[in-house]
Structure formats: C-alpha cells, structure tokens
Design brief:
The complex is a heterodimer of chains A (about 525) and B (about 400). By secondary structure, chain A is α+β, with helices and mostly antiparallel strands. Chain A is about 35% helix and about 25% strand. In chain A, strands 6, 7, 8, 15, 16, 17, 18, 19 and 20 form a 9-stranded mixed β-sheet that branches. The model of chain A is unreliable at about 320-325 (pLDDT under 50). Helix content of chain B is about 25%, strand content about 25%. The termini of chain B are close together. Classes of the chains: A alpha+beta (about 525), B alpha/beta (about 400).
Chain lengths: ~525, ~400
C-alpha cells in the first residue's frame, strides 16, 4: 500500500484530464493525475486528428466556432510539436447545395473564423485527387494534431510544475467524510498495489467513463451516453490539406492528413459500453462512400487501419444549462455539491480536443470559485517544455531526423521511419508498458505493414535493453499482433490484403510465432 | 508445344523446368521476382495440422480433406515431385526428405519443422543445445529473445559489412561475406563471442552462393546453423537463383518485370496472353498456359473495398467470391479468406464449380489454387511444386 497526498486529484488521462492537471499544477495546486491505462488511450487518440479552425461550427454553433478559432491559434503557440499546419478546405461537392457556402462565409465573418473562398481550379491544383466536380472551395486554418503528442507534452508540462502523472492507476474508491471528499483510492495495475491519496478535491475527467467514476463517490445516475464513431486511416497522404464537406455537420464529412496517412471520419451511433466498441461493416462502407464523394478514387486506395472512439457526452437534467460562465461550448459540468450534496468534486463531460485547454481553464476556475480562491490561469501563454521554438511539425520531420543519422542508426519501423533510440527511450520511460504504449509514443507499427516487420524487432530490443525478459517480450509480441488485428480485419481490402498475407507468411510461416512457448497467463496489459 | 508459364515462384519455376524437360518450347513471364525470396529458404511439404506439429508429412497428407491442394495428387506423387525439385536444386542447397521433417529454430526462437533444408541450416536439427550469436548490424535476428525462447545463451558481434553502415539489408551483408577476407573476420568475431553450445545459430546471411557458409564454419571450428530471416531472404534467393539457372540452362525464355494484362482465346482454348512490356502491350502466342502467379500475397487474387474476391488475369471462378465472413476477429485463428482460390482438375486445369475446364489448355499451379493456408500448415513449396508438376505433366490433356 502506497500513501500519497495532494490537493487535487484528476481522474482521467485524456486531453481534458491532462489539460486540467496542467492548469491546476500551473496555478500552484499540488496535483495528481490518475489514468486507468495509458495517456490518451481512450477517446483522445481515437479521433480523426483534426485541429478545428472553427469552420465546422460557423453555421451550426457560433460560440464553438469562435472558441475553436481562438484555441487553434493558442495551441499552435504552446504545443507546436504536436501540430501540423495542413490548412483546410471546405468543399461544396456536386451533391451539396452551393448556397450553404454563402451562409458559411457569413458565419465565418461573424465568428472571427478566418475563411477565404478560393477558385476551384486552385484547390484542384493543390489537391490532385479531389473531386473535379466540386463547385466551391473555402480555405480555412485547419491543422492536424497528434493526440498522443498533445497529451504527453501537456503531461510533461504538468510534471514540470510539480504534478504527478500516474498511468495504469485505476480509481477504485472515493472517500467522503461529512459530505466532503477526503481521499481517493486506486489500484496500481502494473505493480498490483493499492494506492491511497488524501485530497480535498477531485476533478472527474474520465470522459465516457465519468459515470463509473462518479459512482465511486456514491453519485449515481451520471448519465453518460457514449456516442461511438469509427475512423479509417487510408495509406499515404491522399491529401495534404484537411478536406471538409461544406454542409451542415454530418457523418463522414472530414478527411484529415495526419502523419503518413489520411483519416476519414466519422460516424455517430449510441453505444452502451465505451469499452466494447465495434467497427461495423456497414459503417466501413458508409465511410468508403463518404470518402468517394471527396476523392472519386477513394475505394481504390488502401485502408491500413480502423478504430472506434466514444464521445464523452453527458445527459443530465440537473446540469444548470443557464450557467455557462464556467463552461465551454459542448461541455457539461456537474457540481456534486448542488447535485448530490458532496463537496469537493466536479464531473466534466463533453468537449472537443481543439478546445481542451479552454475547458481545463473553465473547470479549474470553477474549482477555485468553490474553494473561494483566485488564482490566475497561465496555460494559454506558457509553451510546454521544449516547444518554445514555436516550430510546428511537418509530415517529413522523421525523414529529416533520419537524414542526420541514417548510417549510424537502425530504422526499426521503416513505414514510420522510427529510429532505434526513439523506441528505446519510449521503452525506458514506460518499462512496464506494452508495445501499444510504446507505439503511442513512437508510431511503431502504425504504417502500411501494421507491425509485420517491426513487431519482432521491437520485442527483441525490449529484451536486449533489459526492459523485459524474453517471456514477457513474447507475450507482448502476441498481444501487439492481436491488437493491431482489431483495426485491420474490419477493413481488409486492396493492397492491404497482400500486406496481411505477407505479414502472416513471415510471422506465422517463417518465424512460426504461433508455436512460441505460451505463458501461464497471457499478458493483457 | 509453345507453353507460357506465368509467375516465377516455386510453382512457376518448377512448371517451366518440368515442361522444358519434356521437350516443350517454354516462355516464363513474371511481374515480380517470385516467392522464393520471401520464403524461409527451405522446402516445406507439411508441418502442422490442427495446431499440432507433425513429423511425417507424407503420412499426414492422407488425412487432409478433399478440398486441399494435395488431395487430388496423393502422397506418392508429392514425394516424387519434391524429390525431383530437390534433385534439380542439388545437394549443395537442399538436404532432407519428405518422409520425416527436420525441426529447426526460427529467428524468434520457435521450433519449426520442414522437409528439406539447406546444408547451412541442418546442424540445428541434430541438437537443442544452441549458442545464439546475433550481428548488431542485422536487426531481424533478435538474439536475446531468440535465445531466451530456445533456452540458450546469446552474444552479439559488431561488424559492419560496409564501413559506417549500421542498417544494411541481409542481402548486403550476404554479398559482403562473399569476400573471403571479410568472411574470415566475421568467423573470427563469431568464434570469439560465441557462448557454449553444440551449434552456433547465426543470421541466415552466410553468402549468396551455396558453399560460402562452409568456409565460415571451418574457420570458426564449431558447428553452425543459419536461421532464416524476413525478406529479403538470402537462403530463399539461393534457391531462386539455382532454379533460374536451371531453366535458363534449359533454354526457357524469361520475361521479367512484365505483367500479363489479358489473354486471347479461340472458343474454349487460349491462343495467347497479352503482356505489358515497356509501355506497350505485346501478345505471345501459346498452345497452353500454366498460370502460377501466386495467391493473395502476390496480388494475383484480389479483394476490393466491397469485399469482392477476383482472380486478376483470367477472371477465373473461385471457391468464394465474397470476403464477408471469411476474415475472423482473432489474429491467431486461421483466416478462411486465404483458403479461397481456383479449383483444379486431375490434370491441373482451372475448372468451374461443375468441374469443367474454364479453357481446355489453361493450367494452374501454386498459391492460386484453393484449399490451404500455407503459412499455418507450412506446405507452400510442397503444394507449389506438386501442383506445378501435375500441370506440366498434364499438358498433353489440353492439346
């Protein structure tokens, strides 16, 4: 049993939780963040990677549009290494009403979202695969964002201000005395140890899992409705600019270039359990059709991976919808004092990645108000550690890095140009991690071969570097292959079928991983 | 007869050699370099059934279902076929038999049976007391992981094949070992580093030529065994080179880097194939075609984004045409999709569901044929060679 002490405990290591932990720590609160798995393992990384310009909301939700535009500019300053400046187009396809573009431009002017109509010919010259039948194009300041880079750099910022970030710590109980939160207990999953944290405030940022966390304090009926959506990564940069469909926001209307892939998203279907999301065949077909409207040859290209994410929507009659002072658009704050008679706990739902910093500011403001304190928020002005240079990343950044040391250092994952030393430092940072934890830091196995070549190399390096023994490495290898397959089998087509056949040939055929010694208990995390 | 063979993996090369030996005029056309260079560089016949490794492949063939590529061929003809291929490739490159499997270690430390292996590998079948020596510059043999799973000790040598280059392909390293001076330095480094053990396991890069490994073994002064790596597979390239040398010596005409894009037919007979060569399409006339282009891994069988499965050149009827439901959610389960393929009759001709030849003179061989997941059961070369010989020997049927 470990005993810790903090003023504020944040539950949930997605963008909201990490942003809140950073904000609280920067305001001088002694802060601990608990995350049941890896940072950004839930909703934050299971999205399409869009850094909103605000354009998506200029007609449907003016307040969100303005917030997005402002936060977009702030994140480019404080976390530039997580962002690529792709720019964005809103395109009116042959199936869409051209008049909507007029509403769009008017809304953009009203909300302060930079937007300029450009000639269709120019858009087609810049994006050669785009549907030549498009009728109008409006250029906006979209970007793409690496969700893991974003949460990890925010977490390091929080740590630099004294916060403790405890991943693989699952909250198991919340202690309440005399109607006031006094502590929280957690299970350190990796070390199988109980952890008790004395604290006076809990910020429940568990997203789709917020209802489960609230219930630990006896606060029931926090009604989280996970809205599930699927995304599909297409091999290569089919486009280098974010392509949005210029219509009232709907399913499957965004194609986002992120790192080496282009991601089409997304659907929105009510899910019962955020831990049991599926990638249904009809939704895959829906995304393929949606992509074909933007890129006519879409179905001929190669899908490399798919995933499903859950939006953290909270429906609660007791949310005081008129009190928007401490809320960002699309965000819900439940005050468990007024709602359940428990002081020292707020539950946060909803939100968007682009506005995560602003949400965090509002949440910590709300906490300060309850505590009767005034502490200024500085998260919008201070860059995260190591990113004061203001340099946004570029899609070719790995190539640039490899050029410096291509003779001296081995490339472990050729698809993602991952150098050995980058992988080793991720392993050493999370020695109890799985290969998926290392993947989220390094993009190991995220390219076209989906681990076919790099998975055994990575398992071998983990043993060579004495991070794990050969038995755990073998188990981790199996787990990684099984996990990669979750996002592969629902979308297998075109050249990815060839790839999978080659991967099986190498892994199951030549190396016979299916006949490696089994562990007594297979590794799950 | 004028015979066109499409593909230059184990099936295409065997079919071409067998047909030219029978006196036919043979032209081999291939888009790629064939499957040998992707393979483990041994001849598999059958090594695993229902998750269990087996010792006697020919005995096990009898228990296979009627849909399996071996089913219409039978153990005797499979024995004859793989012996024929092993003989053509020669004892400098292949030893073993189809009667009993040799059990050899893999690069991650699993034990894998195969029928014929290269002389540079087989010392590992005689013992389980190994010493693993990795090469720092070769990332595809993880020495500690492999040794751990084999219960062996491991060590590394640090010896660039080219000065300053830390990340060569295995083929680059193998070419460097053709230099006797470098091979000696390599051997000395291995001898110095190797932990105790009856056989030293080394990455499968010991020269592009058949005998190079012997010089290294003799210099080390201990038994050694090569372990196959992922592509480019140096042992696989040795087998490929031997077969290509054999077909060229027998005057097979070879067209590589060219895709067959269509065909010409006269009723129920093919009269030629159209080939994309250097920016134009050229037609080669043929009295019969042996289609050995590989399966899903080569792209000869395709699945589109709607799940439709097709054979790309001739549009041949397949055992299934919809991939829906043929791909399962677990990586470790067999994937029925990869059993989909073309049906063949007793002469090796592509047939429809009623067992009627699609063309009287179109034969199929290798991975394009339905009924087996080669990498699971380890039967790739055996099914390729046996079906290639069935096709080449059946040519008279379509005349």
């Amino acid at each position: 049993m470990r005993h810790l002490e903090a003023e504020v405990v944040v539950v949930g290591g997605g963008s909201t939780g990490v942003g809140v932990a950073r904000d609280a720590a920067m305001r001088g609160f002694r802060t601990i963040l608990l995350e049941r798995a890896d940072l950004g393992q839930g909703t934050t990384s299971r999205f399409h990677g869009l850094l909103h310009s605000g354009g998506r909301y200029v007609v449907s939700d003016l307040g969100s549009a303005t917030e997005c535009a402002q936060e977009n500019a702030i994140l480019r300053r404080i976390q530039p290494h997580a962002i690529e400046d792709t720019g964005g187009f809103f395109v009116v396809t042959p199936d869409d009403d051209p008049a909507f573009a007029d509403d769009f431009l008017a809304g953009a002017a009203k909300t302060g979202v930079p937007a300029t109509e450009i000639p269709v010919a120019e858009a087609l010259r810049r994006e050669r695969l785009l549907n030549p039948g498009i009728k109008r194009v409006i250029e906006v300041a979209d970007g793409s964002v690496d969700g893991w880079a974003l949460v990890w750099s925010a977490a390091r910022s929080a740590q630099s201000h004294g916060a403790q970030v405890l991943t693989y710590h699952r909250a198991t109980g919340i202690q309440v005395r005399d109607g006031r939160v006094v502590g929280i207990s957690a299970h350190d999953v990796k070390n199988d140890e109980q952890v008790l944290i004395d604290c006076s405030f809990i910020l429940n940022c568990a997203g789709p899992w917020a209802g489960q966390v609230a219930a630990l304090a006896g606060c029931h009926d926090v009604n989280v409705i996970p809205g599930a959506g699927i995304m599909i990564a297409m091999n290569h940069r089919l486009v280098n600019t974010v392509i949005n469909r210029c219509v009232y926001p709907t399913d499957g209307d965004i194609l986002v270039p992120v790192h080496t892939v282009s991601i089409i998203g997304t659907t929105d279907v009510k899910a019962d359990d955020p831990d049991k999301l599926t990638i249904p065949r009809d939704q895959v077909q829906q995304m393929m059709d949606a992509g074909s409207v933007l890129i006519p040859t879409f179905r001929e290209h190669r899908a490399v991976h798919a995933w499903a994410g859950a939006r953290p929507l909270i429906k609660d009659d007791r949310v005081s919808s008129s009190d928007t002072r401490h809320m960002s658009r699309g965000m819900a704050v439940l005050d468990h004092d007024t709602r359940d008679g428990i002081k020292g706990m707020l539950t946060i739902g909803g939100g968007k990645l682009t506005t995560y910093r602003l949400m965090a500011e509002h949440i910590v403001d709300a906490m300060c108000e309850q505590l009767g304190q005034t502490r200024e928020c500085t998260t919008a002005t201070e860059p995260v550690p190591g990113e004061a240079d203001g340099k946004l990343y570029h899609v070719t950044h790995r190539l640039h890095e490899r050029e410096k040391n291509r003779l001296d250092e081995q490339t472990i994952c050729e698809c993602e140009l991952l150098a050995r030393s980058q992988l080793v430092s991720a392993m050493k940072e999370q020695p109890l991690g799985t290969m998926d934890d290392w993947r989220r830091q390094t993009r190991l196995g995220m390219g076209p071969c989906q681990g076919g070549f790099c998975s055994t190399r990575a398992a071998g390096i983990a043993v060579a570097e004495e991070v794990v023994d050969h038995e755990r490495a073998t188990g981790l290898l199996r787990l990684f292959l099984a996990n990669r397959w979750i996002g592969l089998w629902p979308i297998l087509a075109n050249d990815q079928v060839r790839q999978v056949a080659l991967d099986h040939w190498m892994l199951d055929g030549t190396m016979s991983v299916g006949h490696l010694p089994a562990l007594e208990t297979e590794i799950k995390q | 007869m004028r015979i066109i063979v499409i593909g230059m993996g184990p099936a295409g090369l065997s079919a071409a050699l067998r047909a030219v030996e029978a006196g036919h005029d043979v032209r081999l056309i291939s888009k790629g370099e064939g499957g040998f260079q992707l393979s483990q560089g041994t001849l598999d016949v059958l090594a695993s059934l229902d998750g269990h490794q087996i010792d006697q492949p020919l005995v096990a063939i009898a228990s296979l279902g009627p849909e399996h590529p071996y089913a219409g061929i039978g153990a005797d003809r499979v024995r004859e076929a793989v012996n024929w291929a092993a003989e053509r490739i020669g004892p400098e490159l292949l030893v073993g038999s189809a009667e009993h499997n040799l059990v050899l270690p893999t690069a991650v430390g699993a034990m894998r049976p195969t029928a014929f292996a290269q002389p540079s590998m087989v010392a590992a079948a005689a013992t389980r007391e190994y010493a693993v020596v990795g090469v720092r510059q070769l990332k595809d043999m993880p020495a500690e992981l492999m040794a751990g799973n084999l219960g062996a000790e491991s060590a590394w040598i640090d010896l660039p094949a080219r000065a300053g280059e830390q990340d060569p392909t295995s083929l680059t390293y193998a070419r460097a070992l053709e230099d006797p001076e470098f091979a000696d330095r390599f051997a000395d480094a291995v001898a110095k580093a190797a932990p105790p053990g009856e056989v030293i396991l080394l990455p499968g890069v010991l020269g592009t030529r058949p005998g190079t490994w012997r010089r290294i073994r003799d210099r080390i002064g201990r038994e050694i065994a090569e372990v196959p790596l992922v592509p480019p597979s140096v042992p696989g390239i040795r087998l490929h080179d031997a077969m290509v040398a054999a077909i060229r010596a027998a005057h097979v005409k070879v067209v590589i880097g060219s895709r067959v894009v269509g065909f010409e037919a006269d009723g129920d007979r093919l009269s030629g194939v159209r080939v994309g060569i250097a920016g134009r399409t050229r037609t080669f006339g043929a009295d019969a075609v042996i289609h050995a282009p590989g399966g899903f891994s080569s792209g000869a069988l395709d699945v589109d984004s709607y799940g439709r499965i097709t054979e790309r050149v001739f549009g041949l009827p397949l055992t299934a045409d919809d991939a829906t439901g043929l791909i399962t959610p677990s990586w470790f389960d067999p994937q029925p999709l990869f059993e989909v393929g073309v049906r063949a009759d007793v002469h090796g001709r592509a047939v429809n569901a009623d067992n009627e030849p699609v063309f009287r003179n179109l034969y199929v061989a290798g991975d394009i044929i339905a009924g087996a997941q080669r990498w699971i059961e380890k039967s790739g070369e055996g099914t390729a060679i046996a079906t290639a010989l069935r096709a080449a020997d059946g040519l008279a049927e379509g005349a």
